Amino acid sequence: MRVGQQAAWAAVAAWVAGQAAGARSAVAHGIPAGKLELYQADANGQWACLGHPEIKIPFAWVNDDYCDCPDGSDEPGTSACPDTVFYCANKGHIAGKLPSSRVNDGLCDYDVCCDGSDEWAGHVKCENRCKEMAAEYAKRENERRRTVEAGWASRSKLVTKAAGLRSTIEKEVASLRATVARLDAQLAEAEQDAQRTAFAAESEVRRVSPALEHTRARLREYQTGTQALRHTVQELQARLASAEQILTTLREEYNPNYNDEGVKSAVKAFAEYLANPPTFSDEHLRAVEVLDGGDDAAVLAEEDTLECPGARGWSDVLPTGARRWIFDQKTAWTAYLVESGVLPARPATGGPKVAVANAQRDKIDRERNDATRRLDGLQRDLDSYLGADDVFRALKGECVSLESGEYIYEMCFLDKTSQRSKTTTNLGGFDRLEGDVMYFTHGTKCWTGPHRSTTVHLVCGDKNALLEISEPAMCEYHFEVSTPAMCERYTPPVHDEL
Ligand code: MAN
User: Which of 112, 301, 396, 496 lies at a C-alpha separation of 20 to 30 Å from 340?
Assistant: First the structure.
């Protein structure tokens, strides 16, 4: 006979002895099969607490509904010791662990103990339901298996699609890099060309300058001449006015009683002179004034900075005052337009060739900026986390929706969430994916609070579907979405070794 068997017989003997002594004992209750051998009496019918071997109690005290061991190991099948666990074997189904406080409490805890073993004291009769519960469980598990396997198969396709999309983007990135490099070179060349053209135009201006200077010198001579002429005219006008004054005085003050023929004929001639005034008019004076430039000779020099050198334009025919006014307006408007960013800070100068060269350079610059912007966007896209195996890339833009209350809610993967009734409210744009949660932020502002946002919990499913929506706090939405993208290869459930 083996030692183990001897001990078992000893336990039975002790139990019988215990029964005979009137002590309640139900050793087997609440002990997992793997631990049964720890519950055996020694040769003297004693048993040592599992966590405190120095403490020995009569074996009959095991499961006698009185807590003797500090670790509660003597009461695995009753609620006598706090914070201990009752094991139900649940034969034919999955074994369960129940907090010992629920043992013999008059309630059948079928959710854990389908065999009803938690109510062994007889306060209530809990029939064994393990058979039907095992069948139900197997059905559910089968269903889960089918879903997970179908989801896993779909996911594999998504992963292949995502890899294809990534590779397309990578190709575009490579091609854009080459484009940017080519445009960089072209831009450098165009910049040089623009500088060369501007330099050539400046040289041309310098070549034309002597002729221009000559013309200016002649103009200045004319101005000096006409200014002198104007002064002479003014002086003569003054002298004429003074002579007229003398004769007016003579005419008014001479004594007609003196028969002085000289005076009389002078007065008569003056009267005739007054009757036929000279045809000299203000218009002649204004013409002289325009010619000599008045006091504004500096205007000519100022205007030269705005006009193409040597090309005197229509403003030449205008009076100086008008030209000055136009010049002031032009200067003020140019400054305003430059300040508002409508005109470049330094207006293109140097003629059509320079303009063409600058335009070509600017065109290449714009193309380069466009290519760089797209390149940066694609690179950011490639760098962002889109799930294991990049799987959500394949779902980008695909949408699922669910009607709930007065709204239809929608989520488009990696894009946005929305709430539709008569109008559509933005519940957030895709922000990031973290584990099994997709965050959508910065939606339409809530009238009293923050911008709307949505947290989407992703679970494995054989199809993309919006399963549930809620708004736990105003303008904060929670969605539950199933998708094959979240499925893993099916593995049967693992149950704790009891
Ligand atoms: C709308 C909807 C609701 C939201 C309120 C906030 O009615 O977007 O979901 O709670 O606005 O005012």
Answer: 301
376 C-alpha vs ligand 1 centroid, how far in Å?
36
Helix ranges (DSSP H) in 254-305: 261-275, 282-292, 298-304
Cβ 60 vs Cβ 76: under 8 Å:
no
470 C-alpha to center of ligand 1: Å?
A: 12
Asked if residue 475 has its Cβ within 6 Å of ligand 1, the reply is yes
What is the chain's alpha carbon radius of gyration, rounded to the nearest angstrom?
54
**Contact indicator for 368, 183 with CB cutoff of 8 Å:** yes
Query: What's the rounded mean pLDDT across residues 95-100?
Result: 94
Query: How far, rounded to the nearest angstrom, does the alpha carbon of residue 440 sit from its chain's CA centroid?
Result: 11
473 lines ligand 1 (CB under 6 A): no
β-strand pairing of 416-420 with 407-412: antiparallel
In this predicted structure, the answer to whether residue 40 has a pLDDT above a threshold of 60 is yes
∠ CA 88-91-95, nearest 5°, is 40
3-state secondary structure of 71: coil
User: Which tokens go with 250?
Assistant: 């003579």
Type of residue found at 50? L
What is the whole-number distance in angstroms between the Cα of residue 474 and the centre of ligand 1? 7
- Average pLDDT rounded to a whole number, residues 174-200: 94
Distance 475 CA to ligand 1 centre (A): 6
What are 31's two structure tokens? 């002990």
Angstrom distance (rounded) from CA 303 to CA 311: 11
Atom of ligand 1 nearest to the CA of 444: 8
- Say which residue the tokens 């831009």 belong to: 187
Please tell me the pTM assigned to this model.
0.60
204 lines ligand 1 (CB under 6 A): no
pLDDT tens per residue, range 347-394: 446 788 889 999 999 999 999 999 999 999 999 999 999 999 999 999
The 3-state DSSP class for residue 283 equals helix
Nearest ligand 1 atom to the CA of 448 is 12
| Rounded average pLDDT over 19-42 | 74
Residue 474 in contact with ligand 1 by CB distance below 6 A: yes
